[in-house]
Specification:
There is one protein chain. With 215 residues, this protein is of the alpha+beta class. It has a 4-stranded mixed sheet with strand order 2-1-3-4, with helices on one face. It binds glutathione (GSH).
Length: 215
């Protein structure tokens, strides 16, 4: 039986898992589950009520980071976790930074400009948006610029979970009509271009753009 992934394509966390599945060449089916008003049955498999949740036969597992860790063991190649102990410690920290700080900052812009408009039929609160873009995002981008330095990927010499997690919320930022200023943060902008050009990301970005087009 093939893998089912419960979620919707615009979630940065669902996207993380879909990119990992694509990188590992694992077939799956995306089962639509919106992150609002989850039915009781969904709460049984995802007790925090969040998306994504993986279903592999009778095994179910919520949380993008936990799901990717599971997939790393079921399908070890290509490895998304580094082998070196220090890098193995650092990669999940960068994933956590992306899942918390980056999503709080860029995800809020996406929520105001895209989710409020499309789902709740409300106007964006541009005061919140401007604060995120002008005050909070630059601090995050400064830190990321320093972490990328002259590296191709965030950890070690191979693309992995830190890159998947870090680049995912930037896709939402793009859907909200924003991008990283390449003059101010050249390394970050080039890095994001590199990650988003991978077939795993590229296909999803295109699919998502289509789904946001007005009918
Ligand atoms: N730590 C979780 C976070 C997942 C998450 O926050 N998903 C959002 C959608 S992007 C959600 O389901 N929110 C609904 C809620 O918080 O009730 C993961 O990595 O999967």
């Amino acid at each position: 039986m093939s893998i089912l992934l419960h979620g919707v394509n615009a979630s940065p966390f669902v996207r993380k898992v879909r990119v990992a599945l694509a990188e590992k060449n694992i077939p799956y089916e995306l089962k639509p589950q919106v992150p609002f008003g989850q039915p009781p049955d969904y709460m049984k498999i995802s007790p925090l009520g969040k998306i994504p949740c993986l279903q592999d036969g009778d095994y179910t597992l919520p949380d993008s980071s936990c799901i990717i860790a599971y997939l790393e063991r079921t399908n070890p190649k290509p490895a998304l976790y580094p082998a070196d102990p220090k890098e193995y410690g650092r990669a999940p920290f960068l994933q956590e930074y992306a899942d918390s700080k980056l999503v709080e900052t860029l995800g809020a812009v996406f929520f105001q400009r895209v989710v409020r408009k499309l789902i709740f039929k409300q106007e964006s609160d541009e005061t919140i948006v401007r604060n995120k873009i002008d005050v909070e995002a630059p601090k995050v981008f400064d830190w990321l610029e320093s972490q990328i330095g002259d590296r191709e990927w965030l950890v070690g010499t191979r693309f992995g979970i830190a890159d998947i997690a870090m680049a995912s919320p930037f896709v939402n930022y793009g859907h909200a009509g924003e991008s990283v200023d390449g003059k101010r943060w050249p390394k970050l902008a080039a890095y994001l271009q590199r990650v988003h050009a991978r077939p795993s990301f590229k296909a999803l970005i295109e699919e998502e753009r289509q789904s946001f087009k007005p009918a």
